[in-house]
Task: structure prediction
Amino acid sequence: MNWFNTIAILIAAYLAVFFQATFNELRQWVGVQIDLLPGLIVFAGLGSSIVTLTLLAVCGGLWADSLSSNPLGMSMLPLFLVGLLIHRSREFILRDQPFAQFVLGTAGTAAASLLTLLMIINTNAQPLLSWFSLWQWIVLSLVGGSVTPLWFRFFDWIGDTLNYRPLGGNSFRADREIKRGR
Amino acid sequence: MLKRPHYIALGVVMLLTFCVLKLPSQAAANLKLAISSLFLPLYGAAGSTQDLVVRTSYALVPRGELIRQIDTLEREKQETRVRLMQAQEAIRENARLRDYFAITRQFPWKPLAARVSSRDPANWWKGITIDRGSRDGVRTNSAVVTAEGLVGRVAEVGYTHARVVLVGDPDCRVSVLVGDERNREHGVIDASSSSPLDSALVELSYLSRNAKLSAGQVVITSGLGGVFTKGIVVGHIAEIPRSVGYGLYKEAMVRLAVKMSQLEMVFVLNP
Result:
């Protein structure tokens, strides 16, 4: 198992949770707070092991809930379910296509926030819900989808920067080989 | 089709979620504060960076502008001193009269300045985190205000930080008074999701059906409930009240005095 990949993803989740709690500009403009974790879950679901995915859902969910009024532990299961669904069918997904990443990110963000909200409604908590929440959900999903390809670019860049470079191709061509014989 | 490791991971996450959700409320609150304190280094770094930017911007302000601002502030300070003298005399008179008529004395607030560290990352709550905690004397349910008016109340207190629920959050209902001295009406500022056009509007409900209110009237805290001291400005009536609940009571929209989306510095009122 590649622990570097797991640690990098967890650090990214930690920074993402802090960023989404302190970034206020989008809320001022359109009344919506961004959510970066579902995009990261989509990335982990497509390219990481189930252990990394589980750690990300647990740590990311707990960190996000600790800075929120959500009951603690509420975000873990929705994030994990989104990741598991993608991880299960990752052989059929074109993970390198930005459009596929955007669609998965949008759907993942929409599903994660909806599942979290459904779980909250099933507890004693009373979240703030109205028609405006529908607008928030749509914008949140689209922003989450737009951020997802950036996660892929970011981790590709990290990988290219910190990993060994692959050896260059050999100039040998089998069809130009001179075969000596009698 | 799920494989065995998938089932194991799913079981682990479900078990963990169940265990955390079933924790006693006090233990869950303590665990939440402990986990949120992991972000303290980042808060510290962000605060230092912000200070550095502000200090750098001071160096760019022209000297003439600074002198002009000092003059303005000096004048304001003198005016404030005169008002303070008048207010102190009024406070003394108020205390004498309260003693005379055997009315319980009101103790002055002790405002504690705090900086807003972060906001609630979920869209269905209205909350902020401030950089003051139990080591600074912040207590649960202390009122939080700015110079413009009421912000909310302290919901959870950590050692170095605290979480504040804002007015308009489902967890922060405020009993208020509206109207002049002769015709005062009680009401409750209820949870309301802001509109995309105006995020400063909240609902004022449970006004009596005979309430005669008009747009622009100031809404203040009533002091009922024991959380907020009486007399803190909440906002003003933005729309003429309308009858709801088959005419049993009235509701109105209130424009909050404080712009919640632009909060940077607040004051915690400790008793």
Q: What stands out?
A: The mean pLDDT of chain B is 86. Chain B touches chain A through 53 residues (CB under 8 Å). Chain B has four helices and 13 strands. The longest helix of chain B spans residues 63-100.
